[in-house]
Specification:
By secondary structure, the chain is of the alpha+beta class. Helices cover 34% and strands 25% of the residues.
Length: 73
């Protein structure tokens, strides 16, 4: 079984896009290649496919990596 994590970066227009998008891409690339495993679209939305057994840990890693600087959110 697979799970899909879908996200939208809240208030992305008020943040330095190069900083958060680079951080997100680097993290997602460690888990797979685009567009087979993950995709960023509409500028600030993303999807990531993973196993259902690891979905919580992937979600947590994505969430924490983007919240390192609270000014991004």
């Amino acid at each position: 079984m697979i799970a899909v994590i879908t996200g939208d970066i809240i208030n992305s227009q008020h943040a330095d896009t190069e900083v958060w998008i680079t951080r997100l891409k680097n993290l997602l690339e460690t888990w797979g290649s685009a567009p087979y495993t993950w995709e960023i679209y509409r500028g600030d939305e993303f999807q990531f496919k993973c196993s259902i057994d690891s979905v919580f840990w992937h979600f947590l890693a994505i969430n924490l990596s983007l919240k390192v600087r609270k000014t991004w959110m």
